[in-house]
Recover the amino acids of this structure.
């Protein structure tokens, strides 16, 4: 009888030892000053996107929880000091930003509750400023909303908020439309080229870049130079960088 009890006890002990490695680990936060990790149920550490307790976090490849601005898969996100991914309107560093539901930062035009806003390329909201989106000029009010359907300080803002002013004839014309400015610049450059106002071909090329760079892409600028040369090919000897005699 005693032997049977000893055998049973040994059997139970062996069973417990074998079962011990199978005990599940509870997922938990771990960290030190300024650095946090999240240990998963299987003992590994979280990386990439994780939904923990209904909030989204992002961990780098080494498992560190990320905070602040993060550029992930071609998009900008912002995580607060606790690592929470931010969405909606956020006031960061003295500027307003807007983050979509998935968390990525918005740029360009934004319409919320029938109000129009403009977010610059860095994501910050245009506010209390006269600005251009590359085509027309607009006025962003102190709260960021775009002024529309009104006239202020001699400038008229149409139903889309595009700024207009009266020309010499008294007609309303859009202010500084980029396409119009480019066309006028191109016409002026070609006229000067035609009238031999450039001593050297390189002078023409330099002025084209000084005038059009930033308003046109590099390839568009080069196309304009080439088109002008083809149009007035006999005026310059481009091989020798000087007028043909």
């Amino acid at each position: 009888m005693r032997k049977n009890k000893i055998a049973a006890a040994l059997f139970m002990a062996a069973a417990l030892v074998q079962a011990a490695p199978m005990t599940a680990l509870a997922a938990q936060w771990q960290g030190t000053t300024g650095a946090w990790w999240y240990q998963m149920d299987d003992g590994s550490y979280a990386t990439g996107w994780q939904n923990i307790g209904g909030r989204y976090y992002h961990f780098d490849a080494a498992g560190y929880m990320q905070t602040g601005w993060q550029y992930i898969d071609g998009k900008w996100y912002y995580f607060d000091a606790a690592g929470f991914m931010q969405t909606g309107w956020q006031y960061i560093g003295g500027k307003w930003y807007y983050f979509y539901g998935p968390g990525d930062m918005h740029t360009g035009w934004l319409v919320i509750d029938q109000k129009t806003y403009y977010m610059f390329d860095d994501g910050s909201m245009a506010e209390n400023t006269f600005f251009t989106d590359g085509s027309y000029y607009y006025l962003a009010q102190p709260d960021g909303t775009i002024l529309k359907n009104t006239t202020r300080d001699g400038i008229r803002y149409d139903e889309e908020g595009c700024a207009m002013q009266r020309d010499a004839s008294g007609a309303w014309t859009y202010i500084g439309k980029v396409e119009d400015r480019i066309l006028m610049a191109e016409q002026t450059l070609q006229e000067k080229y035609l009238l031999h106002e450039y001593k050297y071909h390189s002078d023409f090329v330099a002025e084209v870049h000084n005038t059009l760079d930033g308003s046109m892409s590099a390839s568009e600028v080069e196309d304009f130079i080439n088109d002008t040369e083809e149009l007035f090919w006999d005026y310059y000897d481009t091989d020798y960088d000087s007028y043909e005699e």
Q: What stands out?
A: DSSP finds four helices and 18 strands in the chain. Residues 5-23 have pLDDT under 50 and may be disordered. The CA atoms of residues 113 and 145 lie 11 Å apart.
